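Hello,

Following up on my earlier ticket. Below are the two sequence lines again, exactly as submitted.
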Amino acid sequence: KNEVEQSPQNLTAQEGEFITINCSYSVGISALHWLQQHPGGGIVSLFMLSSGKKKHGRLIATINIQEKHSSLHITASHPRDSAVYICAVRSLRTSGSRLTFGEGTQLTVNP
Amino acid sequence: DAGVIQSPRHEVTEMGQEVTLRCKPISGHNSLFWYRQTMMRGLELLIYFNNNVPIDDSGMPEDRFSAKMPNASFSTLKIQPSEPRDSAVYFCASSRTSGLGSYNEQFFGPGTRLTVL
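Thanks for your patience. The regenerated structure is below:
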């Protein structure tokens, strides 16, 4: 079992829909990241959080430390949101700044 | 700031050749990370440096891989000899890490797409 699991693996939505991507992890963590990778391959850090909720534009990330679960929400989705969304955690078990990654969720938003 | 700079962006080489990938982190960042991304294994950390010192190299696949950071503004990842299974996208990322347990987000470079024939 992977330390970080994401669901769904693939998600197709219509423009305007509310989207939720989930991330579950099995280890104690000090931080969780949400990353976005566009079709061109570039990776952008969306959020880093260790508790509660963060919001940036149409993106909202939440984390529940007790349940070892995080969600990434996209409101009013747009075709330009189409990308792979990757969850990564900084485990308390490992040294320093090592991140463990989920397999990613491929999101396609159709016009 | 120009962000994390990697070169080359694409590299095609033949099996057995030496490959050197280069990375310039964001100025002022003191942590540097090398990642590899493949379809089969996703993103994997190869090695990371803090203040130019290698902290965790447990992700380096084997002795054919080596990484150096001679100064705060430059790092290399070398593969010698290269093999077809090394074909992947290699990302460099940097962050500013201060104090024990203090940790900030990582900024990724555009990646180097390596193809070993």
